[in-house]
Design goal:
Helix content of chain B: 40-55%
Order of helices and strands of chain A: EHEHEHHHHEEHEEEEEHH
Structural class of chain A: alpha/beta
CATH topology of the domain at 2-109 and 179-235 in chain A: Purple Acid Phosphatase, chain A, domain 2
CATH architecture of the largest domain in chain B: Beta Barrel
Number of helices of chain B: 15
Distance between the termini of chain B: 41 Å
Oligomer: heterodimer
CATH topology of the largest domain in chain B: Hypothetical Protein Pfu-838710-001
Largest sheet of chain B: 7 strands, mixed, barrel
CATH class of the domain at 2-109 and 179-235 in chain A: Alpha Beta
Number of strands of chain A: 10
Helix content of chain A: 25-40%
Shape of chain B: globular
Largest interface: A-B, 17 and 13 residues
Distance between the termini of chain A: 35 Å
Number of helices of chain A: 9
Strand content of chain B: 15-25%
């Protein structure tokens, strides 16, 4: 079974559409999303509706956790609106309708998925926290101490926006990178694909794809997303903390 | 009725879009077919267009429809109230709030309509349209591409952005960046209302005088081309006026930049421009005179109506002058003239000067100061002693100062534009004086001609006499106003001088 692992879409609908199109061309049978679906981008409603329609298996990331904490909290929203790095979360929260809030609330913090006879653990940051990062430099020792499900043969994560796949301590670690907010100097979006055949994980790889960045940049401006910088998307970098 | 409409170029199959939207939770119901023909209207200067507003007159069923070209434009920028009369079927101009609205573009639309209900319960209109366009008074339709139109009543825009994303990113429909009117004008290869000058013809600080001359002459050719159709169809007297103004400016630019552009070629072009200017002047002078006679007749005791003999005479003379002008505007000679104006000072046309051309921002202040100096000489004379001919010469000098300033307006800040507007006040006052003088002379000529043809009725003579007297009063009033204004002329010179100081240009303002 071929599975496409997506993460960190960050409400970038053109990028999600391009990623799904590429996944379709690669004949991916399942779609798994490792969190940070919304936040920062201009299309939270569109992204949620499309993932719902495609029946994607998704978990919540640190951004969804923060946005859910804003639901029905007018005073907190007002306070966060003044914070440079949180105003976009309030903006996102205010775009969502009942159906979108309901869907977000049902998302789990992590998933244990059994593909054929292989179990994969899907988390946003690490098994211990949705705010910790896994970079390509991660060691076997760190993986051993990460508290991974002992049965799992694969650990799928996102959050760092740096895509990679490597074997460490007998575990296939797959960081999907970011579909909608790449920061590794390559403005193309990224996701991961792996084939689960019997007890083996075959050809785990990172897929890069182009999308209509100009449309996204125009929408960021038109919808006045707080703190958004179109230049970062065009260059595939991060100029300041999100 | 007001609405926001977003258009997408349609590709693919309707079924794919319908199924896709259904999967995303929308309910799509067929709402029948619609076909209508209408005309977009705007003022001659394109004032509605500049505000992002479109006025569409649909003939059957008769209705005026206001549209917002930019969704961001505030809904209260629109008025619900259209012109009092129903849209005319023959593209005739209509009056609206004292302004004359002219047909800009004819549009014919056939659409398959659907109601699109979102999860929120909001209902939108989604249609697949086939639109054809035609220039006003032209019966030849040109088909555009098939379009998907998303239409939303004002105040219900929230879901539109979401549906727009689905259409663009998921169903790969390319959004039409323009609105229907601007797209249609592109299809029929017509200019935008008011013919805004393209950015490529605007002066830049680093331009040489030669490049500047080329841009200014191309700009005048552009303005002439933009008004030819309207002038030939006699849609509004302003079309003839605008061509005439562009002709005058082109002649003056050739005079100002003659050395840089090649003297011989500049002189030849000036002579050609004089030919068309003469024909334009004949029509325009009659328009001004007709307008003046009607205006001043209202001010005469008893408000007499203009005698039929005068009206008919003016009409027949104008028809004759317009026919001659139309022939000239359609001629190969005029076409070549425009091409030459556009080509002068480019690599394809004109002789390059022997010396390297100066930068325009260095050359502009001395040229403007020279134009001011020519007017300053008149300050020695007492205004009360100036003859009508001398006042006319001062008017021409003001016009030249104004044109010189306007040529270089792109280089300076807003204070400079304000100073130009003061120049216009002087010029308008002297212009009305001159128009009154010309109209008196014309009326005398007209009375003589009518007498020779035996059609001179006593009522006509009485009217001409009272009118000449009234025009004399007008000329006297204008002179009085000018005498008062003339005292402010030294201040105007100081203002222009100050606004040309280094560091006051638009770049400095940034």
């Amino acid at each position: 079974m071929r599975v496409a692992f997506l993460s960190d879409i960050h409400a970038n609908f053109p990028a999600l559409c391009a990623a799904l199109e590429r996944a379709r061309l690669l004949r991916a049978e399942r779609l798994v999303v490792a969190g940070d679906i919304i936040g920062g981008g201009p299309h939270p409603v569109e992204v949620i509706r499309l993932l719902q329609e495609r029946s994607a298996l998704a978990i919540r990331g640190n951004v969804e956790r923060k946005i859910l904490s804003l639901q029905g909290k007018a005073r907190r929203q007002k306070r966060w609106l003044k914070r440079k790095n949180a105003a976009h979360l309030v903006w996102t929260a205010r775009q969502l309708g009942d159906a979108e809030w309901e869907w977000l609330a049902t998302l789990p913090d992590f998933l244990h998925l059994d593909f054929d006879s292989v179990r994969a653990q899907v988390v946003h940051g690490t098994p211990q926290s949705d705010e910790e990062y896994l970079y390509p430099s991660v060691t076997a020792e760190a993986i051993r101490r990460a508290g991974i499900d002992p049965v799992a043969r694969a650990l799928v994560c996102g959050h760092s926006h740096i895509p990679f796949t490597k074997m460490a301590a007998g575990i296939r670690v797959i960081n999907c990178g970011s579909v909608g907010r790449p920061v590794d100097g390559d403005p193309r979006g990224a996701f991961a694909v792996a084939d689960f055949v019997g007890p083996a994980i075959r050809c785990p790889r990172i897929v890069r794809f182009r999308y209509a960045v100009a449309d996204l940049v125009a929408d960021l401006a038109e919808r006045a997303v707080p703190g958004a910088r179109g230049g970062e998307y065009l260059r595939g970098i991060k100029l300041r903390g999100v | 009725m007001t609405a926001v409409e977003r258009y997408y170029f349609f590709t693919g199959s309707q079924r794919r879009i319908r199924d896709g939207l259904t999967d995303l939770g929308y309910v799509l119901d067929a709402a029948g077919d619609e076909a209508w023909q209408g005309t977009f209207y705007d003022t001659h200067s394109g004032s509605l267009f500049r505000r992002g507003i479109r006025l569409l007159g649909i003939v059957d069923p008769a209705q005026w429809r206001w549209l917002r070209a930019e969704p961001a434009l505030a809904a209260d920028a629109l008025t619900e109230e259209g012109p009092a009369v129903p849209p005319p079927p023959d593209d005739a101009p209509v009056e609206w709030r004292g302004q004359r609205l002219l047909p800009v573009l004819r549009v014919s639309v056939r659409r398959k309509m659907h109601h699109l209900t979102a999860r929120s319960g909001q209902v939108f209109e989604l249609s697949v349209s086939e639109a054809s366009f035609a220039r006003p008074l032209v019966r030849e339709w040109i088909a555009g591409r098939r379009l998907v139109c998303l239409s939303v009543p004002d105040g219900q825009e929230s879901e539109v952005a979401v549906i727009g994303s689905f259409l663009r990113d998921l169903f790969r429909l390319k959004p039409m960046t323009q609105d229907l009117m601007v797209y249609g004008l592109e299809v029929v290869n017509a200019l935008l209302p008011g013919a805004p000058v393209p950015a490529r013809l605007k002066l830049k600080t680093g331009d040489t005088l030669r490049q500047g001359g080329h841009k200014l002459l191309s700009r005048q050719a552009f303005k002439m081309r933009a008004n030819i159709e309207g002038a030939r169809m006699d849609l509004d007297p302003e079309f003839v006026h605008d061509i005439r103004v562009a002709t005058r400016r082109a002649r003056f630019a050739l005079r100002l930049f003659g050395e840089e552009l090649g003297q011989a070629e500049a002189e030849a072009l000036r002579a050609e421009l004089a030919w068309i200017a003469g024909l334009l002047g004949q029509v325009r002078d009659l328009d001004i005179m007709r307008w003046n006679i009607h205006r001043h007749a209202d001010e005469l005791a008893g408000r007499p109506s203009v005698p039929a003999a005068i009206r008919e005479h003016m009409h027949s003379v104008r028809t004759e002058a317009l026919a001659a002008l139309n022939d000239a505007l359609a001629s190969e000679r005029f076409g070549q003239l425009l091409t030459q104006l556009e080509r002068i000072a480019t690599d394809e046309g004109g002789q390059p000067p022997s010396e390297p051309s100066r930068r325009i921002n260095d050359a502009a202040p001395p040229l403007i100061r020279a134009a001011m100096a020519r007017l300053q000489r008149w300050l020695k004379r007492r205004p009360a002693e100036l003859t009508p001919a001398q006042l006319h010469r001062i008017r021409i000098q003001f016009k030249r100062l104004r044109y010189t300033c306007e040529f270089f307006n792109d280089l300076f800040a807003e204070a400079f534009t304000a100073a130009i507007n003061h120049c216009v006040d002087f010029q308008d006052c002297l212009g009305e004086h001159q128009d009154a003088q010309v109209a008196q002379a014309r009326l005398r000529e007209m009375a003589e001609r009518l007498a020779q043809s035996g059609g001179n009725q006593p009522e006509t003579l009485i009217f001409v006499g009272s009118m000449i007297q009234r025009l004399d009063d007008v000329a006297r009033d204008c002179r009085r106003i000018f005498e008062k204004r003339w005292k402010q002329f030294p201040r105007l010179i100081a203002d222009i001088d100050a606004s040309m100081e280094p560091g006051t240009g638009p770049e400095a303002a940034d």
